[in-house]
Amino acid sequence: MRRVAITGMGAISALGKNVAEFAQALAEGRPGIGPIESTDVSQVRFQNGAEVKGYSHTPYFEDRRADFIDRFAQFAVIAAREAIGDAGVRWTPDLRESAAIVTGSCVGGQSTEDIGFQEVYKLGHNRVHPLTIPKTMANAGASHISMEFGVTGPSFTLSTACSSAAHAIGQAFWMVRSGAAGLAIGGGSEAPFSFGILKAWEAMRVVSTETCRPFSKDRKGMILGEGGAMLVLEPLKAAQARGARIHAEIVGFGMSADAGHITQPSAEGAARAIRAALRDAHLAPEAIGYINAHGTGTPANDSTETAAIRAVFGAHAGRLAVSSTKSMHGHALGASAALECLATALALRDGLLPPTANYREPDPECDLDVIPNVARRAQVEYALSNSFAFGGLNAVLALRAG
Question: I need a labelling partner for 43 at 20 to 30 A (CA). Which of 69, 273, 378, 398 fits?
Answer without folding.
Answer: 69
